[in-house]
Each structure stands twice: as C-alpha cells, then as structure tokens.
Design goal:
The complex is a heterodimer of chains A (about 600) and B (about 375).
Chain A: H1 2-29, H2 31-42, E1 43-48, E2 55-56, E3 64-74, H3 83-93, H4 97-104, E4 115-121, H5 123-131, E5 139-149, H6 156-159, E6 162-164, H7 167-170, E7 183-185, H8 188-192, H9 194-198, E8 202-208, E9 214-221, E10 229-230, H10 235-245, E11 250-255, E12 262-268, H11 274-277, H12 282-290, H13 299-302, H14 312-321, E13 331-333, E14 336-339, E15 342-345, E16 353-355, H15 357-362, H16 366-374, H17 378-387, H18 409-415, H19 422-429, H20 439-450, E17 454-455, E18 473-474, H21 479-494, E19 511-517, H22 522-528, E20 536-543, E21 550-556, H23 562-607
Parallel strand pairs in A: 2-10
Antiparallel strand pairs in A: 1-8, 3-4, 3-5, 6-7, 8-9, 11-12, 11-21, 13-16, 14-15, 17-18, 19-20, 20-21
Chain B: H1 8-13, H2 16-36, H3 48-68, H4 71-76, H5 78-95, E1 97-99, E2 102-108, E3 111-113, H6 115-133, H7 142-162, H8 166-183, H9 187-211, H10 214-224, H11 233-246, H12 273-306, H13 310-334, H14 352-370
Antiparallel strand pairs in B: 1-2, 2-3
The chains are: A alpha+beta (about 600), B mainly alpha (about 375).
Chain lengths: ~600, ~375
C-alpha cells in the first residue's frame, strides 16, 4: 500500500507538471495575444466626426449648412425576439419583415454591438420610434452630421456634393482613416478641397462591460473642425447666370479678368446635391447618369465646342502681331470668296462691302478673316491661340476639367496622318473645323484680351494672402494691338450694325464678340430643322470698357445665333454684377450711418 | 476518551503547516472574490466576500471540533453517516430547491446547503471503514470490487446524476477507484477498467447523452469545439483562457483585472476564481499559489503513509485524492483542458458548503496526522 501511495504522489506531481506547461503556454507564450483579446473585450473606440468646413460665397453668405441626419440601429441582445415585435418593428421602420429578421440574425463578432438597420429617418419617424421606445428596448437613434445645400440646384456644379466612399477610394491613402460608410466630397469644391473641408475626426475610447455599458472614459480626443472655404463666387451673379440658362443646355463663366477670380460658374441643366445626402435610390441615380441632357456634366469645364466667331479675336491679334494686317488694311466682302476651287461663305449672304479690322470684328465678317487666313501660317495662328490659354486646362481647381483642341500641322500629321490644307486654315480662322474650346478657356482668353495680355489662372477660392501674387504668364502681344481688339469689341456691342448689340446696357459699357458655331452646314440644318443640329451660341464679353472688372463667357448648346441668344444673357449677368455691387455699397453706407447713430445713443446713455 | 483529556503530545503534533496553508488559501480566496465582484458602475460592492469570511469563521470552529474527536471514534459511525448522506440525497431529489438548472440545494432558513458536497466525505468514511475491515494485503478481484461498488458506489452515483450534478458524480467515481487502487486492486484490473471505460464511452455516451440536461450537453460540445457557439458556453471557456492568458508573466495587478468585474467571464467568483487570480497575479503568482495546493496534497499523502492504522490510511488517502481531483479538474477546466463540469476550486471559490466541507476534510486529515504513528519514539 505504501508503494501505491508513493506511486500516486508521482502521478500528482506529473499532473502538476502538465498543468504547469499549459499555464506557461497560455500566460507566457500566448500572453500578449490574450492581453489583446482582453483589451478588445473592454475597450471601445468611437470616432467623433469633425464638423465639415462651411462653404461661403465671396460676400460671406453660406452655400451649405451642416444638419443632423438620423440613422437607426439595434443592439440585438436587447431586442425581443418574438414574431409580433418583429412585425410591428418592420412596419415602424418600413423594412420588410424577412429582411429585418436577416439583419437581426447576422452573426456578430462582438456581442452588444449595435447593427445599423436604416439610414436617414425623417423627423416624424424619429418621433414615432422615440414614443415606442419601451416596446423596442434595443433600438437606438444615431445622429450623424450631414450637409444641406441651401441653394439646391444653384451652383451645384461648383459646390458639388457628398456621397459615400467608393470602393476604390476606400483603399486610397487620401481617404485613410475613414470608416467605410463615410461621406466624402465626390464632386465640385466638396471633392477638390475635401482634405481642407473634412477636418480631423476625434476619438473617444471608453471601457465597456460585457453588456456594452460604458464604465469609464479612458481618453477623449477633440475633433478639429474642417476649415471653412470662401469661394470667389458672387451669388447674385451666379443666380442670374443660372436663371438665364434655365430650360437650356449651356454654361456661363463670369470672371474677374484682373485676378482670375471666378464670379459665377454655371452649367445647365443642373442637379440637386441634397439628393445624395438623403441616400439616393438606385433608380434616381440611374436617372441622373443616363439623362440625355447630362446634368452631372459641368459644361463650363467638361465640354468643348468649336468657338465660332469668338475665335476671330485670336486670329485678328495674330494677324496684327505678324504684320499681316494693319489699321489701313481693308478687304472687300461680297458674301463669299473662292479658294482652291471651293466657295467659302460669309454668314451675311449679301456681303459686308469693304471693311477694315474694326468693322470686320464688330460685324463679324467672315470674308475679311478668310483673306487674313490666306496670308497666315496655321502653326503661327495655333501658337497665338495657345499663348492665350486655348488647348490646355485652365487649372481652375475642379476635378475632371478637360482642354479644347488647337489644331496645327503637327497635330494633323499625328492625329490624321495627313498634311495640313490651306482650306482648313480658312475654317480655323473663323473658329470652325477642328478647333474646339471649353467655356472656361474662352473666359481666360477674354481676360487676357482686356487685362493687358496676362494669362490668368481661374480660381474659385478667395485667399487673402494676395490675389495678384500668382505669377501670370503673358501672351506677349503689343498693348496697342490688344487695345485695337478691345475697341472693336466695344463697337460690336455699342455701334450700329454690331452683332453684339443685344448686349448693350444702360448702366455700363460692355464690349463683346458673338460666336455662332455650326453643328452642320446651313443647308443641312435648313432641311431638317432638328434642335440637336442647331448652331451653338457663344458670346464673350467684358465690362466696363475702360477698365474691365468682369468678363463673361456665355455658351448655349444648340442655342442658335450668338448675337440673338447668348449676348442678352451676358448683358443680364453683367448688369446683375453691377447692381449687386451698388446694392452692397448702399448697405455698407447705411450700416456705417447706423453705427454712428448707435454710438451716439451709447454716449447719451453713458452721460445719463 | 481521547477527546476529553487533551494530551500534550496531541498539541505538539498539531499540524500548523496544514492549517496555515488552508487559511492562507482561503484568505487569498476572499481577496480574489472581492476583486472579482467589485462594481464598475456606481453600484455598491457586493457582499460575497463578507459572507465568505463568515463561512471561514464557521469552518474554523468545525475544523477544531472535528480535530478534537479521535477519528477512530468517528469511523465507528461511518456506515450510519453514510446512510444519513444517502437519506439527504434522496431528500434533496424530492424536496430540494432548484438552482442553475439542478436540484441540489436544501434550504435551511437563512442559508442553503448542498448535501452532495458533504456526501463525498461521508462516502470516503464508509469506503475506508469497509476496506480497512477487510484487513491488510487484501486480494481485490472483480467480484469484491463489484460488491464494494454495489454497496457504496452505484446507488449514490445514480442519485447524484439524477440531480443532476455531473461534477460530484465524476468526483466520487474518481475517489472510489483511487481508493480501490490504494487498497490493492490489481493493476491489470484497473488498466482493463480504464480500457473498457474508454471503449464504451461512445455507447455509454449515447445512453447517457439522452439523460443529460441541455446545458450539460452544451458544455460538452463547447469543450470539443469552443467555436461552435462563441456566445454560449464556448464563450465561457474562451473568456477563461483570455483572463488567464492576459495576466502574462506577472499579472495586471491586484484589483486591476478587467475580465471579471466587467462581466466578460461568468461565474468569476465561484468555479472560475482561478482565472481571476491568474489575470491579476500572472504566471509567477499562479505558480506560488499552486505550490500551496501541492503542499497540502503531499502533506495528505504523507499523512496517509504515517497513519497509525489502516482505516486512517484509507481515510487520509481518500480525502487527499478528493482534494487533488478537485484542484486538478477545476484548474484544467479553467485552462480549457476539460469540459466545464461545475467543480469549485477548493478553499478559494465562493460557496459556503464547499468551504465548510473542505475544512472538515482537512480537519480529519489533521486529526489523523495528530494521532499518527509515534515514529520519533
């Protein structure tokens, strides 16, 4: 028996040894892993989202607001699991019972973690849920900050919109640290300056017990609010521009030709950026992207068209600079000329008679420019076009900007594997043929024409650090030649026979150049009369004539004649600009007066 | 009568070491219960630790009471005690209070106790008496084993399974066979019994499985694969390992453990008290703790060898193996090495009945040691 007891002692000792090995393995070898799991158990880290920066117009009036959105989620362990509760909850949340059941039964990694049931509850739904809280103890309403676009469709292409991270962005370092369902800027300024507007999320680390109840706050990091952005957009001008585009497709760009500040950037048709925030249905999204009018296209920077006669300003400058023409040069227009066995028509069948450069620009005589074209090398012309900013993106600071095309012999050889024909030059000089430009590019051209030949970079953000500090490249043309063109454009609007006379204004002197870009030849259009074959209407303009503060480019897709359709729009926009300016001045004066008044009041009170 | 006239030799032989180890472990138990049940929100500290302290006081009284009787006097009434135990088991089946899915408590006014806790002790007494009556160097063949089983094992085992109290049923089978082994059961027979046991597990299992309660089935499946049901009983095993493992080499520090107070680990102050201790004191503290248990067990075996008579040897051996089984099953359960069977850690787990029966058992051990063979003379 003694031996057996000793034997048992050894058994006990070996059992201890086995337990000890196991203990060593769990505590020492795998200790740090279990430590992690235990911290995971008890530590909950929440993001505290930073309020997004507000977007203001140049006068400080906000375009957007941060507003609360309500989502609903449920802690499943607290939810009654009977069929009846499920059905009434399904009715309350407007979720199919089957779908709801599946949501509540997805296996969870952690217990007592709420699962999201629905986004964007209306206030009345939130109220209804709150009233029935007792029946559904696990429900919780989460508040999330969302964006409201105060002006709706107005300036939508500039402000842009927020939407959920796309799968591609989720892996992008620009968006690192964001939860997969985060809303980020997906269009316009919201997208281009997302990093500024977004701010930095804070964090809150709490200890929770097994039921998910917070026991204490371990650390809290304050979120830092996104920076506000002040746009160069002048809302009254923007509103006028969009009003004039209503019901048509097209774009208006209003720019300060001295600084490049964009005063209005309108594209029509537009869209309502609020739709995205509210959780757009697949149907709505499809409607939006397949709409033949392409509301999501920012026509001011994302579409190019032949600039038509507006391009004649470049042709004229090139001819003057190259000595092809001077003030004395006159050509006779009898309605068309013949070149290389083909007839090149002037838009005015009966002809303009004998015209000099000023009249040719004012009345937009095509024959004058055909004659110039006969004497001008295409590569020279193309280089002038580029020096004025055509053929390259303006760099306005919005995603997806494209550039127009400035054709020359080199381009022709590469793209068409053919040599350049003189006849093609004749098309190019009047802004037809291969030549295309975006409205923003034409705004840059107009600015350079009237600011002494400086090529401005359009900008959307006011930065007080000095609007003129950007180094501008110059077109390198003689000031007197620029002056000649400018004068001709003022004539075009203000003198008899000018094609731009519909832009004439009583409150300021406007200069401008019309453009009517043919989509098909006139004879084809006359046969069909289809609206999608109608000419594109252009108008480039500036005001006031002596020292321009604003340059407006109007483009109307299939709008018809530039003088008839686009010029009045430009006039309205320019007048809106000066009216708003006058209004602001008046208000400031009144405010000053009031201030004086008020101070007097205070003094009186103090005397008492 | 030895218990009236207190012999000077008895006082000299009193085992202070054993009592100190037991008191130290129960004091550590109280501290650990205090930490495990400390409130994290604004609630008040739960009173478990106080009640455990009262029970320690009561246990000490019983310890000294039981040590002053000569164990041989107690052995005289072994069978009577055994039948009293059977009576209690039957009583609890019909009139017991149900708790945690099993009918094993007898309410006694302000407190309730589990007769199956004490029954183990009564059982050891009866088997010791039976085996010692058979004399030295007995030949335990199959027939005599079956007879012993029929007398002392099958009936109580059945009654306990019926409660159901799987843990105690497993305990008394282990104790029974280890005592038979000590008495001289043929090694060949024991090996055969083990082999038959292993082979018949699937068959017995099938029969047994049907009679198990749901929670017992869950415990066993969860042990086989803790990932089957990570939120149920498998969660329990996993969280126990997480608690122990997160303690690392030196632990998180006393009152710094998180698994228990935050309720990630259920039954933290009862069966899983070791997990809480290991979380706060780490590997170093756990090894120290185990050394005290090892000390008690080795002391028990030593007492068995030195007992003045055969009955004392059996008694000491039975009690020590019970203590060893308690410890090893509980620890391997918290380490995820065996199914969760509801066996507390002796001396440390919260629970009055178990504590009292632990002290009674150690009292008897001390009793035998105090009256051991006069080796020194």
């Amino acid at each position: 028996m003694e031996r057996r007891i000793i034997f048992c002692t050894y058994i006990v000792l070996s059992a201890f040894a086995i337990l000890l090995l196991r203990l060593f393995s769990i505590q020492v070898i795998k200790g740090s892993r279990y430590r992690e799991i235990s911290d995971n158990n008890r530590l909950k880290v929440e993001r505290v989202t930073a309020p997004r920066g507000i977007i203001y117009d140049r006068n400080g009036s906000p375009l957007v607001r941060n507003i609360p959105f309500f989502d609903i989620s449920a802690v499943r362990e607290y939810m009654p699991s009977d069929e009846e509760t499920l059905l009434s909850l399904s009715a309350l949340l407007n979720i199919e019972p089957g779908k709801l059941k599946a949501m509540l039964h997805v296996p969870a990694v952690k217990t007592y973690v709420p699962v999201k049931l629905r986004d964007n509850l209306s206030l009345s739904e939130v109220a209804m849920i709150a009233a029935r809280k007792i029946d559904f103890p696990g429900l919780q309403v989460d508040v999330r900050t969302g964006r409201e676009y105060i002006y709706g469709e107005l300036a939508a292409h500039v402000s842009g919109y927020l939407n959920r991270l796309t799968p591609g962005q989720a892996g992008d370092s620009d968006y690192s640290g964001l939860p997969p369902d985060a809303f980020v800027g997906q269009y316009g300024v919201e997208k281009f300056h997302d990093d500024i507007l977004r701010g930095r999320a804070g964090g809150r680390m709490t200890e929770v017990d097994a039921m998910g109840r917070e026991t204490r706050v371990i650390s809290f990091e304050e979120p830092s609010k996104g920076r506000d952005i002040r746009l160069t957009i002048d809302m009254p001008v923007q509103i006028e521009a969009e009003k004039n585009l209503a019901g048509r497709a097209g774009a208006v760009v209003a720019i300060d030709p001295q600084t490049g500040e964009i005063l209005a950037l309108a594209s029509s048709p537009s869209f309502d950026p609020n739709m995205f925030m509210e959780g757009m249905s697949a149907f709505d999204w499809n409607m939006l992207v397949t709409d033949s009018k392409k509301p999501l296209l920012n026509r001011a920077i994302q579409s190019r068209y032949p600039p038509g006669s507006t391009f004649k300003v470049i042709t004229a400058l090139a001819a003057l600079e190259e000595g092809v023409i001077n003030d004395e040069t006159k050509f006779h227009c009898k309605g068309s000329i013949e070149y290389g066995g083909r007839e090149f028509k002037c838009w005015k069948k009966e002809g303009h008679g004998t015209v000099n450069l000023n009249r040719a620009l004012a009345e937009s005589c095509d024959v004058f420019f055909y004659e110039v074209g006969k004497r001008l090398d295409i590569d020279k012309l193309a280089s002038y076009a580029r020096r004025f900013g055509l053929g390259m993106p303006s760099g306005i600071g919005l995603n997806g900007e494209i550039a127009g095309l400035v054709p020359d012999s080199k381009w022709k050889a590469k793209a068409k594997k053919d040599k350049w024909y003189m006849g093609e030059t004749l098309h190019t000089v009047i802004g037809q043929g291969y030549l295309t430009a975006t409205p923003i590019e034409m705004a840059v051209v107009t600015s350079a024409l009237v600011n002494g030949g400086r090529l401005v970079k359009p900008k959307l953000l006011m930065d007080d650090a000095g609007a003129l500090s950007d180094s501008f490249s110059t077109a390198g043309v003689k000031p007197e030649n620029l002056f000649r063109i400018k004068s001709a454009l003022i004539s075009s609007v203000n003198e008899g026979g000018g094609t731009g006379h519909l832009a004439r204004s009583n409150i300021t002197e406007i200069g401008g150049k019309t453009g009517t870009a043919q989509v098909v030849s006139k004879s084809v259009y006359d046969r069909n009369r289809l609206s999608e074959l109608k000419d594109h209407a252009w108008f480039i303009s500036f005001a006031p004539g002596d020292k321009p503060e604003i340059a407006v480019t109007v483009f109307i897709e299939h709008g018809g004649g530039g003088g008839a359709e686009a010029a009045p729009v430009a006039k309205n926009v320019i007048e809106a600009y000066f009216n708003a300016k006058a209004e602001r001045l008046k208000q400031e004066e009144e405010k000053e007066k009031e201030l004086e008044y008020g101070m007097g009041d205070d003094r009186q009170k103090a005397d008492k | 009568m030895g218990w009236v006239m207190i012999d000077r030799r008895l006082i000299n032989n009193f085992d202070w070491g054993l009592l100190s180890a037991a008191l130290l472990l129960s004091a550590i138990g109280v501290l650990t219960i205090f930490s495990a049940t400390r409130p994290v929100l604004d609630a008040e500290q739960q009173s478990f630790y106080m009640r455990q302290l009262y029970w320690i006081g009561l246990s000490l009284i019983f310890y000294f009471a039981v040590i002053s009787f000569d164990y041989r006097w107690l052995l005289r009434y072994a069978y009577f005690i055994y039948f009293f135990g059977i009576f209690l088991l039957v009583f609890v089946l019909f009139f017991g209070r149900e708790g945690m899915g099993a009918q094993r408590w007898i309410p006694l006014g302000f407190l309730s106790f589990q007769p199956s806790e004490f029954f183990k002790l009564f059982f050891i007494f009866a088997v010791s008496r039976y085996l010692s009556d058979m004399g030295e160097n007995i030949n335990l063949d199959l027939k005599s084993i079956l007879r012993a089983g029929g007398l002392f094992f099958f009936i109580p085992a059945l009654l306990i399974v019926k409660q159901p109290d799987l843990g105690t049923a497993v305990m008394i089978s282990f104790i029974f066979f280890s005592m038979l082994f000590a008495a001289g059961m043929r090694t060949r027979l024991l090996v055969m019994a083990v082999i038959i046991g292993i082979i018949s597990v699937p068959y017995l299992g099938n029969i047994f499985w049907g009679s198990l309660k749901n929670y017992q089935k869950q415990r066993i499946t969860a042990f086989m694969d803790p990932d089957i049901d990570p939120r149920g009983i498998g969660y329990h095993i996993k969280q126990s390992k997480v608690s122990i493992g997160s303690g690392g080499l030196v632990g998180k520090g006393y009152m710094k453990g998180t698994q228990g107070p935050l309720r990630f680990l259920p039954e933290k102050h009862t069966d899983f008290i070791f997990a809480i201790f290991a979380e706060e004191w780490g590997f170093a503290g756990s090894v120290m703790l185990w050394l005290f248990y090892l000390f008690i067990i080795l002391r028990g075996f030593d007492t068995a060898r030195r007992a003045r008579d055969l009955a004392g040897t059996y008694l000491a051996f039975g009690i020590t193996s019970m203590f060893a089984f308690y410890f090893m099953i509980n620890i391997s359960m918290t380490l995820g090495m065996s199914p969760v069977v509801g066996i507390p850690l002796p001396l440390m787990s919260y629970g009055g009945t178990a504590l009292l029966s632990n002290f009674l058992a150690l009292g008897i051990l001390g009793n035998i040691r105090m009256r051991r063979m006069p080796l020194s003379y």
